[in-house]
């Protein structure tokens, strides 16, 4: 034992390197004294160990040369990181890599940890996401409901309800799948109550759909059911009681259109349609578009869109731009001062009230120029357009090029602002085309003719709004007819 020098206390014996070696030896913990101290400290920090079976003779030993237990239950306090490291440092690598013989675990069982601890946490790379049974069931129901059209689903519900009502009235057993005799009696019931052939077929189809979707026997495909429906059709043919339209009736009909229609333009349209249908012997389906072929369009943007929608009210075609007869329905969504950073949130909100459209025309972003750094705005435009393409996968995005301005709100340097506007248009156009969208250019505004702008140099004049609406009308008609067209105007 080294002597204590003068001026040193008992706790500061020896030089610094001596103390470092002592601390290093204490950290490594390979001496027998350290092993004994660890064997005394560990039981105080650990819960009582429950052994399940004796160790095999000659099995590798632990720190205190005791046999390694088969399985133990350790409390959360034993999972402290520094104590685990101290124990691991005292073990030999051969002990860590050694796997016990198979018979050692033959009579053992695995017990769960009493409490969660640091060593029982999942690794960052593991998939920790969990989906509840309720979420899976809800998603499956949503997908199944989307498989049929809304009108088809409504018809099926009505048919099943009518069949259940029939079974209650006739005191038949309410069982699924319905027996063949119940289907036969149900068709007879519909015939006696004056139902049409189409209604009877729709109700039988509803019963068959329910049987198929639930994996039950489908008796609606039986031969007798098909023959009953065939006889239903032959016997239920009705004579058309409507009188033919004469030329005198047509003249009277056209004469009263002015007092029924909203304006003279609409009266002329109906007069032309009636006259053409009468003299060309056309059917209604040959002149009109069915509801299923209609195309819906959202026009979303800032005050440019808002003012254009207001100006469209005074035009002959009003806010429909005269495209209603071509099966195009327009929904105007113009908000004064709308910024591009708020566009995605606005479209998500609109999607809660309406079904996704076929086209979304976007005219937004000019209010961000000068207020947001150009590079940051470009990144936001690229990101949000990709996001919108994923939110509306079956919708074509149309980028309406931002218009030049005579004056800008956030800077007097018109040249720098115009350069930023061009960069935003180029970035948005590239991203839109990459997502399969369309481009709408407004070439008439290049050069910034003063007669197209209002006094503030930002908004459009009456003539400017008319030109903007003409561009929208032509672009929408072109994109709907030409599925491969991506840029308007073509030249």
Notes on the structure:
The structure is a single chain. It is built from 17 helices and 6 strands. With 491 residues, the chain is mostly helical. It has 4 domains: 28-49 and 80-92, no CATH class; 151-235, Orthogonal Bundle (DNA polymerase, domain 1), CATH 1.10.150; 247-286, no CATH class; 294-488, 3-Layer(aba) Sandwich (Rossmann fold). It has a 6-stranded parallel sheet with strand order 2-1-3-4-5-6, sandwiched between helices. The chain is flat.
Which features would summarize this protein structure in a list?
491 residues; DNA polymerase, domain 1; six-stranded parallel sheet; 6 strands
Characterize this entry briefly.
With 491 residues, the chain is mainly alpha-helical. The chain has helices at residues 16-28, 32-45, 81-89, 93-97, 133-146, 150-169, 180-192, 197-213, 223-235, 247-255, 264-279, 284-287, 303-312, 343-351, 374-391, 414-434, 462-481, and strands spanning 295-301, 328-334, 359-363, 396-400, 438-440, 487-488.
